[in-house]
Amino acid sequence: MAATCSSLHSRHGRFAYTSTAACCLTLFLLAATQVDVASASRASRSGLPGATVQVVSSASAPTPWPSSFSASFTETVKYLFIKSSTTGRLFYDFPYERMDRENGEGDRYCGTATGKKLKKVSCSHVVTNGTQGFARYLVFGDGDCCFCCSTENGCGATKPDWAANGEYQGQDTVAGVVCDKFSVKGLQTNLYWIAADASSTVATPVRLLQKPDDDMIFSDVSVGKFDPGTFALPGKCDKSCGGTCALVGARGDA
User: What pTM was estimated for this model as a whole?
Assistant: First the structure.
């Protein structure tokens, strides 16, 4: 959810929201040969050692996100004494973004907000134009909401091309989907899987692992616009969230 998460700033949420630094792009050369998928499938079913199905891909860098899409996710977080898992949904319509979590206790923003520290309460990151300007706000299931930090301080929505400097790592199968895998440098190393599809100009995210402690698996990806109310706030949300939000706002880097 540096998301720029956005924030999903792909380090927010915490996808979301990684601010990628410029780095040398490692070109991973792929053979331009055709793959006989049917034969490979038969070999795999026969139990032959090393028999795998590979999808032809010309990827050397990840394609950008669609400008507008939604996706469900499961997230597992492990750091210090915190171990938490949750489900949620991402709504993305750049420069707007919303990431809903059923349980926000493991999120570094929701779980450290004033009055919400390590509480099991639903929490949404909402990047929208509110009373504090275009910024990131936190909205909780108990009706509370607060101002996290501004887009000027790195808290805007995740840019569609946030992973543009990713280094290709080959192909993996994740949740039954053949994926292209990339390593994306941010404040930490991010491993990012997208569905392998050489004909597509936009990415279908499948998994994001923000090493070593935050793992997100995406599903039910739907491309399309949303009702403007999707990114509406429940009130003024003027008070400061405190916690990690305050630290990010002070240093200008989410």
Answer: 0.76
